[in-house]
Amino acid sequence: METSMIEQLELDADGNLARMDDWNEEVAREFARREGIDELTDRHWVVINYMRDEYKNKGDAPSIRKLTKQSGVPVKELYKLFPKGPAKKAAKISGLPKPKGCI
Amino acid sequence: MEMPVAESKKQGEEKKGPEPIQKVSIIISKGSLEEVYPGLIMANGARMEGIDVNLFFTFFGLESIISKRMDNLKVSTVGNPAMHMPTMLGGLPGMSAIATSRMKKEIEKLDIPPIREFVEMIHDSGAEIYACRATVDMFHLTKDDFCEQVDGVISVGEFYEKSAGAQIIFT
User: Fold this and answer.
1) Closest partner residue to B48 among A64, A66, A74, by Cβ?
2) How far is A73 from A70, CA to CA, in rounded Å?
3) For the segment B20-52, what is each residue's pLDDT rounded down to a tens digit?
């Protein structure tokens, strides 16, 4: 069995990374597999990179509206890429805390 | 010592919390701006959590999916004590327009989309959107009067069928 990188890292109460600097692409892939996403495609990475940039600049994850408008990934596709909860899942895979906003 | 079956089962169950919500049916029955948004925000929030959503519009709630009207919903300034505005003042011409424009600005600040865009976004997220048959007949409307996101005009009975296993939220 593969060794888990996530288990070596400090997590918050929601199971997200406690420090976004602990994140790397391997950690992202492992979080994704845990969330049922076997492979991270280029389109996943567009979302992940946008979320990390936005978090660094603003201190919170973007709203779905902002995310879809600015990353160029439409709502329908976003829900396909991250089924069953795109904002929460994308944040976790991106190494960020759970988004605080309602939208 | 062997544990009785019933007891070990009980301990197993205790570890689990209550079942997460899988599905909601949200009814929007009113047509002023401040009465439509809460239902839409609840619907969008549910989809964001991976919860299945049916949105059912009835009575004046239909205003928010009628293509010609959905961009023009207004905040009601009369008969709402929480507005902190005397009813007679709230009834003056232009008051509703002022309150509406203020609320729209605040809503935009929070990155909440205008009604039309919000309905589209919620539909794109996988929610199903229905109009109430009785109201459609009462107001002499047809399917063509609605925005394209409306999946159908259905009866109350069909609404309950589609709500099998769902929590029902009336707004």
Assistant:
1) A64
2) 8
3) 999 999 999 999 999 999 999 999 999 999 999
Question: Which residues of A have a catalytic role annotated?
Answer: 102
Asked if A64 and B44 come within 8 Å (Cβ–Cβ), the reply is yes
Measure the CA angle with vertex A84, ends A68 and A57; round to 5°: 40
Q: Where are the alpha helices (DSSP H) in A1-103?
A: 25-34, 42-58, 64-71, 75-81, 86-93
The whole-angstrom separation of Cα B2 and Cα A95 is: 45
Interface touch A74/B41, C-beta < 8 Å: no
Task: Summarize pLDDT for B99-152 with one digit per residue, the tens.
Answer: 999 989 988 888 889 999 999 999 999 999 999 999 999 999 999 999 999 999
Determine the distance in angstroms separating the CA of B48 from the nearest CA of chain A, rounded to an integer: 5
Per-residue tokens: B118: 């919000």
Q: What is the mean pLDDT of chain B?
A: 89
Task: Tell me the pLDDT tens digit for each residue of A66-87.
Answer: 889 999 999 999 999 999 889 8
Q: What is the CATH number of the domain that holds A54?
A: 1.10.10
Say what the pTM is: 0.87
Q: Look at A79 and B126 and tell me if their CB atoms are within 8 Å.
A: yes
**Within a 13 Å sphere around the CA of A42, how many CA atoms are in the beta-carbon half?**
1
Give me the residues paired with residue B129 across strands. B55
User: A54 lies in which domain range?
Assistant: 6-93
The answer to whether the Cβ–Cβ distance between B124 and A76 falls below 8 Å is yes
List the 12-51 stretch of A: residues with Cβ below 8 A of B: none
Model pLDDT, residue B145: 96
For chain A, what is the mean pLDDT? 90
CATH of the domain at B162: 3.40.1260.10
